[in-house]
TrEMBL record:
It comes from Flavobacterium tagetis. Keywords: Membrane, Transmembrane, Transmembrane helix. The chain crosses the membrane at residues 5-24, 44-64, 71-89, 105-122. It is found in: Membrane. Pfam families: DoxX (PF07681). This is DoxX family membrane protein. The keyword Manganese does not apply.
């Protein structure tokens, strides 16, 4: 069993629930029309919103299949960083408690993805070690 299987399952569940429900309650279209289009992405806000959510579903499947992990991670980290920049940063750190809608959740998801992508850590291999 892969050491990060539980992290991959948890991340897949988060990405799927964050995406699938919006497909059935008009949340993705609303995000595209009422947020992305309003902050300068018009007329592509809805297309961008759907692209983001579909990428979450594809990444969830890749995480569960343990395939293309680094590519999936980099794509999702990019989306999460853009979420921080465009949505969450102005709200501060806390999601709840000391604030609302802050960056802490995205930060945690990024760290989990990095742990999945680099289960042995990131090290510079030096061939000249004595």
């Amino acid at each position: 069993m892969n050491a990060n299987l539980l992290l991959r399952i948890a991340m897949a569940i988060i990405l799927l629930t964050h995406s699938v429900f919006g497909m059935f309650n008009n949340g993705i279209n609303d995000f595209g029309n009422l947020f992305l289009n309003q902050i300068g992405f018009a007329p592509y806000g809805v297309l961008l919103a759907w692209s983001i959510k579909l990428s979450h579903i594809i990444v969830a499947i890749l995480l569960l299949a343990n395939k293309y992990i680094k590519l999936a991670g980099f794509v999702t980290i990019f989306v999460l960083v853009m979420g921080i920049v465009l949505v969450h940063f102005k709200e501060g750190w806390f999601v709840v408690g000391g604030g609302r809608n802050g960056v802490e959740y995205n930060f945690l998801l990024i760290i989990v993805l990095l742990a999945i992508m680099f289960p042995d850590g990131i090290s510079k291999k030096n061939k000249n070690n004595s």
